[in-house]
Amino acid sequence: MTAKSTAGREQQRYDCIVVGAGHNGLAAGLVLARNGRRVLVLEKNNYVGGMGGTREILRGCRNEVGASCLFPLSAEVKAYFDFESHGVELIPLPVMAVNLVGGDGRPLIFFRSALRTSFNLLRQFGPGAMLGFARFLKFCAYPARVLDRFTARKAPRRLEDLIAEAATPQQREHLELAFKGSAMDIIDRFFPDRVKHRELRAAMAFAAVQATYKGPYTPGSGLCLIYTMAQEGSEGLMQRVKGGIGSLSECLARQIEELGGEVHLKQRVARILVQDGRAAGVELKNGERLYAECVVSNLDKQATFNHLLAGHALAQPEQARVDAFTHRGAFVHMLFKLRGLPHWGGRYAALQRVPRSQFGGAMVLDPEELQRSYEACAAGRVPQQMPLAFQIPSVNDPSLAPQGYHVASAYGFYFPCEADKSLRGKLRDEVADKIIDHWCQYMPDFRELIVDQAIFSSDHFASMHGVTGGDWTHGLLHPDQMIGERCLVDGTGHTTPLPGLFLCGSSCHPGPGVTFLPGYNCAHEILAARAPVTATTPAPAARAA
Q: What is the pLDDT of residue 234?
């Protein structure tokens, strides 16, 4: 996985060229390579993983710019890739998240132990809150099944059709609320008391807005809440990957090369070649042309069709469908190198007695203030206070930082990503101070421990990873662009209007997250559509859509 030249390969044909070595591009490449296809994966950066990669940003550290935790995988995907038998070490998290709201709030802690989490809910918030949380999870279960985030090798169907087919009027009403209502329409049902349930209301509201350009009171934000709460396999338990989440992509790339496939870094694709009305290969920035039976793009739809295929016009309805996707990156991502581990202070000093409680969680706002933060962002202003998701991953994985140091990260919302570009640098610096100030409310010594830091806005994500609008979701989790609406050709998950071209990234169902499902599903769709080749490693049989 070093930078490799493609010189002298113009006369060679591949079965498949994958554009982008993010985790989904590599997942697609590995499935195809295991099934005897000759695969070439091209990546413009000097590392694999894309927004699920790990590299040195701050001196001596392994930093993640993008995804950081491994959430539940589809049982089929987990068994197929079997990361741990290929050298990946997964780290369980005794404390998965500590969620905090305000200087006078109670910590809402999610432990790996479900029993311990339940006891904490009961002790801190009372039996009403614990019962409400159980009922809330039960409410989410039905629409989560309809979203169907974790079923492999199955083409999704349109949301409106799925709602219309609900068995009873009550079920249709349930789905209408879950997918078209606001997050607070749902949360108010189960946590109605703004005082007794304050911390639960704030934590669930924050969970509902991290992958959507909406506030918790905005219609349609309920879908993102359901998406977040959908569970599979390990019942929602998240884990860390030793050495950073990029270790997963590095593992896939090694396997592709072991099977005779190629992964080339620092190879920027300038355009997708079209011959006789079908995708025929790619042209690199240096002018070299490489040919294949099919091309797979790990980029979002607009980056693929409006840039890599800028010279190839889609039919107007198809182009309109591509252009209709909403992309907004209303966040900043900060990285820190610390000369020690910060301490909980003030009202939260008792958390020092909970081992590894500094690992991460969220520092959130009351839902009403969170809605105002969104509205400020939409108006081009920096919110009064920045709610944030935080991590100090070296608490559980010391290999990420030099001895005696720690690495920390934060995602802050909402950054005014639609403000005039000439103003966004100044706004970014303003946001950085707000994030650090917010962190210091709970860990007062945090600022003084910072020895280095970096900040990335959606503008950086756009340039680093080629994502439209810096949107890491490849299409925000809005009701009109999820499930079947995420597809370009009805009845398929990854086929495009251009023959020979497939999409394998998070712009496809089931959407964002390090699930490997878009890449895995895409490869199986390609295998089902093309002539069989003797497989080097058996793959699960294709499933009917």
A: 47
> 168-184 burial string, b = 16+ CB within 10 Å, else e?
eeeeeebbebbbbbbbb
Percentages of the chain per state (helix, strand, coil), in multiples of 5: 40, 20, 40
CATH number for the region 13-56+244-325+476-529 comes to 3.50.50.60
Residue whose structure tokens are 């294709």: 542
Tell me: the pLDDT tens digits for 57-68? Answer: 999 999 999 999
CA angle 320, 208, 352 (to 5 degrees): 145
Bridge partners for 98 per DSSP: 109, 361
Bigger pLDDT: 368 vs 544? 368
**Secondary structure of 321-359 as H, E, C letters:** HHHCCCCCCCEEEEEEEECCCCCCCHHHHHHHHCCCCCC
Q: Determine the 3-state secondary structure of 3 from DSSP.
A: strand
Return all residues near 397 (Cβ < 8 A) that are at least 6 apart: 91, 240, 242, 243, 244
Residues of the chain with CATH 3.30.190: 327-465
Residue type at 36 in one-letter notation: G
| Cβ atoms of 135 and 204 closer than 8 Å | no
Examine the pLDDT at 542 and tell me if it is beyond 50.
no
Query: Cβ–Cβ contacts within 10 Å for residue 161, how many?
Result: 10
Do 383 and 359 meet the contact criterion of CB atoms below 8 Å apart? no
Packing angle of the helix pair 183-190, 127-147 (nearest 10 deg): 140
The CATH number of 327-465 is which of 1.10.8, 3.40.50, 1.10.10, 3.30.190? 3.30.190
